[in-house]
Amino acid sequence: MLFFLDKGYRVIAHDRREHGRSAQTGDGHAMDHYADDLAALTAHLDLRNAVHVGHSTGGGEVVHYLGRHGESRVAKAAILSAVPPLMVQTDANPGGTPKSVFDDYMAQLAANRSGFYRDVASGPFYGYNRPGAEPSQAIIDNWWRQGMMGGAKAHYDGIVAFSQTDFTEDLEKITVPVLVMHGDDDQIVPYEDSAPLSAELLQNGTLKTYAGFPHGMPTTEAATINAELLAFLQS
Questions:
Q1: The domain containing residue 54 runs over which residues?
Q2: Under a CB-based contact definition with an 8 Å cutoff, are residues 71 and 96 in contact?
Q3: DSSP string across 171-216
Q4: For 117-128, what is each residue's pLDDT tens digit?
Q5: Is 141 a catalytic residue?
Q6: Residue 29 among the catalytic residues
Q7: Which of 121, 177, 126, 171 is closest to 144 using CA atoms?
Q8: Closest CA to 211 of 187, 233, 186
Q9: Residue 21 lies in a domain
């Protein structure tokens, strides 16, 4: 955010419901509500010609917002390490991740949310479990901090939202330019079943693949990602 502020852009980030400083609420932790909350925010701020940038679940939120609420306020979008088109394995999506994996996430979160967030951040999220990786304790601690600021119910339900929502029809509706950015060593949202498929479904999509980059590439590879996003904004 500071990078783009320095370049003269207005930068807005919202905390998803029951995340960060947003109100704690027991319901609405589904992609429809995420998209509707985003629509309410953009209407309240009367945003025009906005560029929406979403990482991981946020990428799904951006896509569903555009598919559900239209593009009248949007100039472009970028989705990074994002969950569309569909994460979970189904008969129609045989390359997806088995549902049992997400069920295990939910069980771990319910049993020990703090430990689960430590393990994810210190392992696959940033690729710190790869040979030769040099984990940053500050990055791990900050990811854990952000997670623990939110509510357990939202996080538990959110696993279903990000893994089982099918964004295919949303992607097909979008006509604004969309930059699809993904690392090919993403251990959270596997590359082959996400970014290339999303780019193909989009009418005006551009795929950027990053060799060896992890799921958390906006943090660990910020210099590259920010420069690519800036070029996309200025194009």
A1: 2-11+26-234
A2: no
A3: HHH--S-EEEEEETT-SSS-GGGSHHHHHHHSTTEEEEEETT--TT
A4: 999 999 999 999
A5: no
A6: no
A7: 121
A8: 186
A9: no
DSSP calls for 138-167: HHHHHHHHHHHHS-HHHHHHHHHHHHH---
Indicate if the pLDDT at residue 26 is higher than 90.
Answer: no
* Catalytic position from the list 186, 193, 194, 198: 186
Does residue 153 form part of some domain? yes
CATH value at residue 165: 3.40.50.1820
Nearest to 209 by CA among 163, 230, 95, 197: 197
The amino acid at residue 205 is G
Contact 212, 183 (CB under 8 A): yes
Indicate the SS3 state at residue 80: strand
Count up the domains in the chain and report the number: 1
Q: Is residue 149 part of a domain?
A: yes
Q: Which of 19, 37, 55, 56 is catalytic?
A: 56
* Catalytic residue check, 186: yes
pTM greater than the 0.70 cutoff: yes
CB 23, CB 38: distance < 8 Å: no
Active-site hit among 19, 55, 155, 215: 215
With respect to residue 159, please indicate whether it lies within any of the assigned structural domains.
yes
